[in-house]
Amino acid sequence: MPAVQRVILLLIDGLRADVAERELVAGHLPHLAALTATGSRSRAATAFPSTTSVAYLPFLTGALPGRCNVPSIRWLDRQAYTGRWWRDRDAVRSYCGWQAGHLDRDIAADVTTIFELVPESIAIFSMVTRGLPAEANRIQGARKFWGTVSHYTENHQPGDDAVAKELLAQAGGDWRFCFAQFPAVDGHTHAATPDDASVLASLRQVDATIGALTERLRALGRLDDTLIMVVSDHGAAPVTGHLDLATWFRQRGARALAHPVLWTRDPHVAVMVAGNAQAALYAEPNRPRPSRHPLHALRASGALGIPGDAIAALASEAAIALLAGESDDGGVHLTSRLGDATLHRDGEVIRYQRLTGDPLEIGADAAHDHREWLARTIDGPFPDAPVSLLDQFQAPRTGDVVIAAAEGWDFREAWEYPEHKSGHGSLIASHMLTPAWSNQPLPEGPLRTVDLFPVICRWLGVDTPGSGALFS
Ligand SMILES: [Zn+2]
């Protein structure tokens, strides 16, 4: 092996595994086909929620979002929020607006980013940058500029073009790890469908960039010592129905705190939506408390500000695939139209037990380690759901209830512009499965996106930090 090996991690935001695979087979991605011919064309399950920025964390920290204590794009600090919305504004988070820059410092202190681990790193267009020297944090100005402009023009290609230009300019640099994010596939998907012509055009443009990049590396004599990975943070699916959760509560008489209007007086519930197919609920958010309410306590009439069992009412909504909260004995309690079940972790063993039904559609009670659970669920309706849900509830910032949308639905806020015609964030297969492609062989068997972090570390010859364990 050459003395100095390098890694290039290229993230095509929001690229569905099946869309990528179909395009490859059809011959529309010739440079990616050549790149991966002797490497890997695997699939990986992403993290939950399957949303931008949160789902970058596995690649860049080797830890799942809950382990990072960044459980979602929006969250509320249950211990710090006291109801004084202006004074406590730092205890309510949305990375979609002015707080985007808080993401780096929100990542748990005992989690190490790849940029901290490998000082000779650069990142292009990245939302996670902790540990990067300022000069290695490339084209952040363009990211903010094109992010804002394309939000309104619905043309996301200029962002990708800026990334491509910078990536090619940096190819001969003396970095060891390079992360670049291409935003256009995700942007065009939200405005249309995951396989819309605009999405495929952006994907083919990334393929052309990869062709130019490998050509440049070959000319520099650096192709053979560079591990190149092409990945995505989540998939997406068309949305035909919107269930605005804050409105759902308000229509039933509850005072709901939700973005963008946070000055709700004495709220019964806070609704934090991400992606937009995931949401978290925080009961009585203005009363600070160290622990979550268990799910059964929230079924009491009035617990979430509406008469009757609000959890049962939500579970009966067609928009909702499942709800999760804490069980009384330290596990996770799941409920859906299919009934109730629990998840418990005891060391290496994760146990799924049906109570009144089978919300994860496993078909039986079962106990496995996390690898076996991934293998058992990756081709099912909720890939890696047992691990993903247990991870959510290891974050102190996670809500009392976490909600995953059903296929075809999201929890879009009524105020959002432009309307999302496709979305992601949920635990369903179309949102969770991503391509994991490489010019080198990747580990055998079903993968999580978080499994790529130790592969990067090994190629760079650095030790994987202890925070890489799935559970702390
Ligand atoms: Zn994304």
What does this structure look like?
This protein is an alpha/beta fold and 472 residues long. 28% of the residues lie in helices and 22% in strands. It has 15 helices and 23 strands. The chain has helices spanning 17-25, 30-36, 57-61, 103-106, 114-117, 140-153, 157-170, 184-191, 197-219, 245-251, 310-315, 370-377, 385-392, 429-432, 452-460; strands at 6-12, 40-45, 74-76, 92-94, 121-124, 137-138, 177-182, 226-231, 237-238, 241-242, 256-258, 269-274, 278-283, 320-326, 332-336, 339-346, 349-354, 366-368, 401-405, 409-410, 422-423, 433-438, 447-448. A nine-stranded mixed β-sheet has the order 11-12-13-19-14-15-16-17-18, with helices on both faces. Strand 15 (332-336) and strand 16 (339-346) form a beta hairpin. Helix 2 (30-36) packs across helix 9 (197-219), helix 7 (157-170) runs parallel beside helix 9 (197-219) and helix 8 runs antiparallel to helix 9. The longest helix is centred in the middle third of the chain and has 23 residues, at 197-219. The radius of gyration is 21 Å and the shape is globular. The two termini are 34 Å apart. The mean pLDDT is 93. The structure holds zinc ion (ZN). Zinc ion binds next to loops.
What is the approximate shape? Answer: globular
Task: Determine the N-to-C terminus distance.
Answer: 34 Å
Q: Count of DSSP E strands?
A: 23
Q: Segments where pLDDT lies below 50 for 5+ residues?
A: none
Count, helices: 15
- Bound ligands: zinc ion
Please give the order of strands in the largest beta sheet: 11-12-13-19-14-15-16-17-18
Name the helicity range. Answer: 25-40%
Q: Please, what is the average pLDDT?
A: 93
Note the main sheet. 9 strands, mixed
